[in-house]
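>> received
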Amino acid sequence: MGGGPMKIAFASTVFLACLLFPGGAEAEKWSMVKLEKGVTVYEQKIAGKVAFKGIGRIEGSPAKLIGILENPKRWKHWIDNFQSGRLLERKSPTVKVFYQAFDSPFPVSNRDLVYESVVSRDAKTGILSIDMKSVIHPKAPATVGVRVKLAYTRYRIEPAGKGMEVTLETLSDPGGALPGFTVNWASRSYPVTIFEGLRREMKRTDQKEAPLPD
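>> returned
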């Protein structure tokens, strides 16, 4: 993984607090922030906070991409500050509950979360979505520090030729006395970091495909 001190210090906090999307909140239009490494990053103000969105192309099949997102054994190789994680429950081929824990730099407490991941497909367009949200689960371990509430997260996957157009949205609210400019810097870098990690994993032959909804 790697990156400068600012990335190391704040990337995990940004990731853990991402996509706290209040339903029905008023939102401004998306505005473009930058284009980096084939990922277009946008920002949007929602209920006084700033959301970020990354859109980019990833080569390969949607089934393999979802398999990467659902493979705890490889998370540490592409998710910054990852400590540990595992599958808690497989409710169905497309509905699963996961646990993830993350290291945070002192004096920030370590974070973890328990979330349900639901894969769905739009019958008309064929576009796939992965929706994630926090849940309470009996098999979840005690928290390593602070348990994050993930209200809403979405990957949107649109097949395009031999690859796909992927959209990831994130609204960061790390809390605490973190400088706003640093949080925004990390948030704007987060989509690019995730896309780069996923692209690397897509090239691996040992990554398996996940079952897709009908």
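>> The two ends are 36 Å apart (CA to CA).
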